[in-house]
Amino acid sequence: MVTETFKKQLNKFLLAFGISLMLGIVILGEDFRNSLGQSVGFLMDPLVNLLGASNFHIVLFIMASITALYASLIQKYTMDWELMRSTQEKMRVFQKQFREAQLSNNTSLMKKMESERTAMMSEQMEMSKQQFKPMAYISIISLPLFMWAYYFITLPEHGGASFVFPFWGEQLLTDTIIGPFQYWIFWYFIASLAVSQLIRKALDVGGI
Protein backbone atom coordinates (compact mmCIF):
# COMPACT_ATOMS: atom_id res chain seq x y z
CA MET A 1 0.00 0.00 0.00
CA VAL A 2 2.82 2.38 0.93
CA THR A 3 4.69 1.46 -2.26
CA GLU A 4 1.61 2.11 -4.40
CA THR A 5 1.07 5.50 -2.73
CA PHE A 6 4.72 6.39 -3.29
CA LYS A 7 4.46 5.45 -6.98
CA LYS A 8 1.41 7.67 -7.42
CA GLN A 9 3.09 10.60 -5.68
CA LEU A 10 6.26 10.13 -7.73
CA ASN A 11 4.19 9.95 -10.90
CA LYS A 12 2.43 13.21 -10.05
CA PHE A 13 5.74 14.90 -9.21
CA LEU A 14 7.41 13.81 -12.46
CA LEU A 15 4.42 14.89 -14.52
CA ALA A 16 4.31 18.28 -12.78
CA PHE A 17 8.08 18.70 -13.20
CA GLY A 18 7.97 17.83 -16.91
CA ILE A 19 5.07 20.19 -17.58
CA SER A 20 6.82 22.94 -15.60
CA LEU A 21 9.92 22.57 -17.78
CA MET A 22 7.87 22.86 -20.96
CA LEU A 23 6.00 25.91 -19.69
CA GLY A 24 9.15 27.51 -18.27
CA ILE A 25 10.96 27.33 -21.61
CA VAL A 26 8.02 28.97 -23.39
CA ILE A 27 6.96 31.53 -20.76
CA LEU A 28 10.16 32.47 -18.91
CA GLY A 29 12.22 32.98 -22.05
CA GLU A 30 15.94 33.23 -22.75
CA ASP A 31 17.16 33.62 -19.16
CA PHE A 32 15.45 30.42 -18.06
CA ARG A 33 16.69 28.49 -21.11
CA ASN A 34 20.28 29.63 -20.52
CA SER A 35 20.11 28.82 -16.80
CA LEU A 36 18.75 25.37 -17.59
CA GLY A 37 21.49 24.81 -20.17
CA GLN A 38 24.23 25.94 -17.79
CA SER A 39 22.96 23.64 -15.05
CA VAL A 40 23.36 20.60 -17.34
CA GLY A 41 26.89 21.66 -18.23
CA PHE A 42 28.46 19.79 -15.32
CA LEU A 43 27.31 16.53 -16.99
CA MET A 44 27.91 17.35 -20.66
CA ASP A 45 30.94 19.66 -20.63
CA PRO A 46 33.34 16.81 -19.69
CA LEU A 47 32.14 14.89 -22.76
CA VAL A 48 32.90 17.89 -24.96
CA ASN A 49 36.33 18.23 -23.34
CA LEU A 50 36.98 14.55 -24.04
CA LEU A 51 35.93 14.63 -27.71
CA GLY A 52 36.88 18.24 -28.45
CA ALA A 53 34.61 21.14 -29.37
CA SER A 54 35.44 20.60 -33.07
CA ASN A 55 33.68 17.22 -32.79
CA PHE A 56 30.50 18.71 -31.39
CA HIS A 57 28.48 16.84 -34.04
CA ILE A 58 29.53 13.59 -32.30
CA VAL A 59 28.37 15.00 -28.96
CA LEU A 60 25.04 15.85 -30.57
CA PHE A 61 24.76 12.32 -31.95
CA ILE A 62 25.41 10.83 -28.49
CA MET A 63 22.87 13.22 -27.00
CA ALA A 64 20.30 12.29 -29.65
CA SER A 65 20.91 8.60 -28.97
CA ILE A 66 20.36 9.07 -25.23
CA THR A 67 17.11 10.94 -25.72
CA ALA A 68 15.90 8.46 -28.38
CA LEU A 69 16.51 5.48 -26.06
CA TYR A 70 14.93 7.23 -23.10
CA ALA A 71 11.89 8.34 -25.11
CA SER A 72 11.38 4.86 -26.59
CA LEU A 73 11.51 3.19 -23.17
CA ILE A 74 9.08 5.73 -21.72
CA GLN A 75 6.64 5.21 -24.59
CA LYS A 76 6.94 1.42 -24.40
CA TYR A 77 6.06 1.20 -20.71
CA THR A 78 3.61 4.10 -20.24
CA MET A 79 1.33 3.75 -23.26
CA ASP A 80 -1.38 1.17 -23.95
CA TRP A 81 -0.50 0.29 -27.52
CA GLU A 82 -3.36 -2.18 -27.85
CA LEU A 83 -5.81 0.62 -27.05
CA MET A 84 -4.05 2.88 -29.57
CA ARG A 85 -4.28 0.24 -32.31
CA SER A 86 -7.92 -0.64 -31.64
CA THR A 87 -8.95 3.03 -31.42
CA GLN A 88 -7.28 3.92 -34.69
CA GLU A 89 -8.77 0.88 -36.43
CA LYS A 90 -12.26 1.76 -35.14
CA MET A 91 -11.79 5.32 -36.37
CA ARG A 92 -10.76 4.14 -39.84
CA VAL A 93 -13.78 1.84 -40.11
CA PHE A 94 -16.15 4.51 -38.75
CA GLN A 95 -14.90 7.18 -41.16
CA LYS A 96 -15.29 4.81 -44.11
CA GLN A 97 -18.85 3.84 -43.11
CA PHE A 98 -19.84 7.44 -42.38
CA ARG A 99 -18.49 8.57 -45.74
CA GLU A 100 -20.48 5.86 -47.50
CA ALA A 101 -23.63 6.92 -45.61
CA GLN A 102 -23.07 10.51 -46.70
CA LEU A 103 -22.56 9.54 -50.35
CA SER A 104 -25.73 7.44 -50.34
CA ASN A 105 -27.61 10.15 -48.38
CA ASN A 106 -28.60 7.57 -45.75
CA THR A 107 -29.80 10.00 -43.06
CA SER A 108 -31.09 7.30 -40.69
CA LEU A 109 -27.70 5.58 -40.66
CA MET A 110 -25.91 8.90 -40.16
CA LYS A 111 -28.11 9.70 -37.15
CA LYS A 112 -27.42 6.26 -35.71
CA MET A 113 -23.70 6.74 -36.19
CA GLU A 114 -23.76 10.08 -34.35
CA SER A 115 -24.09 8.22 -31.04
CA GLU A 116 -21.12 6.06 -32.02
CA ARG A 117 -19.14 9.23 -32.77
CA THR A 118 -19.65 10.42 -29.17
CA ALA A 119 -18.27 7.16 -27.78
CA MET A 120 -15.33 7.28 -30.17
CA MET A 121 -14.54 10.86 -29.20
CA SER A 122 -14.25 9.66 -25.60
CA GLU A 123 -11.77 6.98 -26.69
CA GLN A 124 -9.86 9.58 -28.70
CA MET A 125 -9.58 11.77 -25.60
CA GLU A 126 -8.20 8.83 -23.63
CA MET A 127 -5.67 8.18 -26.38
CA SER A 128 -4.63 11.84 -26.34
CA LYS A 129 -4.06 11.67 -22.57
CA GLN A 130 -1.87 8.60 -23.04
CA GLN A 131 0.20 10.46 -25.63
CA PHE A 132 0.60 13.54 -23.44
CA LYS A 133 1.89 11.73 -20.34
CA PRO A 134 5.02 10.33 -22.07
CA MET A 135 5.74 13.81 -23.48
CA ALA A 136 5.92 15.20 -19.93
CA TYR A 137 8.24 12.38 -18.82
CA ILE A 138 10.46 12.69 -21.91
CA SER A 139 10.83 16.45 -21.46
CA ILE A 140 12.57 15.89 -18.10
CA ILE A 141 15.65 14.57 -19.94
CA SER A 142 15.35 15.86 -23.49
CA LEU A 143 14.62 19.55 -22.79
CA PRO A 144 17.58 20.16 -20.41
CA LEU A 145 19.93 18.42 -22.85
CA PHE A 146 18.61 20.43 -25.78
CA MET A 147 18.87 23.69 -23.82
CA TRP A 148 22.45 22.81 -22.89
CA ALA A 149 23.36 22.28 -26.56
CA TYR A 150 21.57 25.51 -27.49
CA TYR A 151 23.46 27.44 -24.81
CA PHE A 152 26.84 25.80 -25.44
CA ILE A 153 27.04 26.21 -29.18
CA THR A 154 25.93 29.85 -29.16
CA LEU A 155 28.85 30.88 -26.96
CA PRO A 156 31.43 32.81 -29.04
CA GLU A 157 34.27 30.43 -28.17
CA HIS A 158 32.28 27.42 -29.42
CA GLY A 159 31.06 28.86 -32.69
CA GLY A 160 33.61 27.16 -34.95
CA ALA A 161 32.30 23.60 -34.88
CA SER A 162 31.43 22.29 -38.34
CA PHE A 163 30.14 19.13 -40.01
CA VAL A 164 30.21 17.77 -43.58
CA PHE A 165 26.62 17.29 -44.74
CA PRO A 166 25.70 15.29 -47.87
CA PHE A 167 25.07 17.63 -50.83
CA TRP A 168 25.72 20.74 -48.68
CA GLY A 169 29.37 20.08 -47.92
CA GLU A 170 31.03 21.44 -44.78
CA GLN A 171 28.84 23.83 -42.81
CA LEU A 172 29.26 25.63 -39.51
CA LEU A 173 26.78 24.14 -37.05
CA THR A 174 25.78 27.64 -35.92
CA ASP A 175 24.94 28.79 -39.46
CA THR A 176 21.26 28.89 -40.33
CA ILE A 177 19.43 26.84 -42.96
CA ILE A 178 16.09 28.67 -42.91
CA GLY A 179 15.30 31.56 -40.58
CA PRO A 180 16.52 30.72 -37.06
CA PHE A 181 16.79 26.99 -37.89
CA GLN A 182 20.50 26.17 -37.49
CA TYR A 183 22.49 23.25 -38.88
CA TRP A 184 23.14 21.77 -35.44
CA ILE A 185 19.39 21.53 -34.80
CA PHE A 186 18.90 19.83 -38.17
CA TRP A 187 21.71 17.35 -37.44
CA TYR A 188 20.36 16.65 -33.94
CA PHE A 189 16.84 15.86 -35.19
CA ILE A 190 18.06 13.75 -38.11
CA ALA A 191 20.30 11.73 -35.76
CA SER A 192 17.52 11.43 -33.18
CA LEU A 193 15.02 10.25 -35.79
CA ALA A 194 17.37 7.64 -37.24
CA VAL A 195 18.43 6.21 -33.87
CA SER A 196 14.85 6.33 -32.59
CA GLN A 197 13.62 4.21 -35.51
CA LEU A 198 16.25 1.55 -34.81
CA ILE A 199 15.54 1.49 -31.07
CA ARG A 200 11.75 1.40 -31.52
CA LYS A 201 12.14 -1.50 -33.95
CA ALA A 202 14.40 -3.37 -31.51
CA LEU A 203 12.07 -2.76 -28.54
CA ASP A 204 8.90 -3.32 -30.60
CA VAL A 205 7.51 0.08 -29.66
CA GLY A 206 4.40 1.24 -31.50
CA GLY A 207 3.89 -0.50 -34.78
CA ILE A 208 0.48 1.11 -35.26
Task: Name a few traits of the molecule.
208 residues; mainly alpha; two-stranded antiparallel sheet; two-stranded antiparallel ribbon; 6 helices; 78% helix; elongated
Description of the molecule:
By secondary structure, the protein is mostly helical. The chain has one domain. The protein has six helices and four strands, in the order H-H-H-H-H-E-E-E-E-H. The strands form two sheets. The protein has a two-stranded antiparallel ribbon with strand order 1-2. A two-stranded antiparallel sheet has the order 3-4. Strand 1 and strand 2 form a beta hairpin. Helix 4 crosses helix 5. The longest helix is centred in the middle third of the chain and has 48 residues. The model has no long low-confidence stretch (mean pLDDT 78).
